[in-house]
Write a structure and sequence with these properties.
Elements: H1 10-14, H2 24-33, H3 37-50, H4 55-67, H5 71-84, H6 90-101, H7 105-118, H8 123-147, H9 153-168
Length: 175
Amino acid sequence: MMFRTLLILAALLTSGLAPAATTPLDQAQSLWLAGHRQEAVAAVQAELSRSPDDLKLRFTLGVYRMELHETEAALRIFTALTQDFPDLADPYNNLAVLHAGQGQLDQARADLDQALRLQPDHAQAQENLGDLLLRLAARAYERAQAAAAAPSAGLAQKLKETQALVLKSTPTQAH
């Protein structure tokens, strides 16, 4: 599935034109991009101890936790962000990524629906919804096939084609 998350300052940092790290978040991003993942997390956490309500720091920590496959920690961070900043779409999008990764497709759908209610033109949430709908279609075809009294060639073909699309949408990187 091509679920992707948002990285803070990604365009600036990947452009090769990033200025010298000046803020604590810039420094953490530099550490992260240099492969010093745990040091980046520690830098964000240290700054959060001074500024616990900082949205960018909290969001960045959530993304880092996602990238490190620390799903439960990321879930707690993004859930808290949806409670503290209920008008932001990005935390809901990232919750959808996490829930889909756990096979909780219905919860992922609810998360994406909320993200798109808040920001209908959210490109990443729209793409994630498309990927999720493919997985939901495959699940429905599988259930229909299991419930059918006799095998159906048409249903089997739909399932095969949908599963092929799901496989094509599998990401090679998560961000």
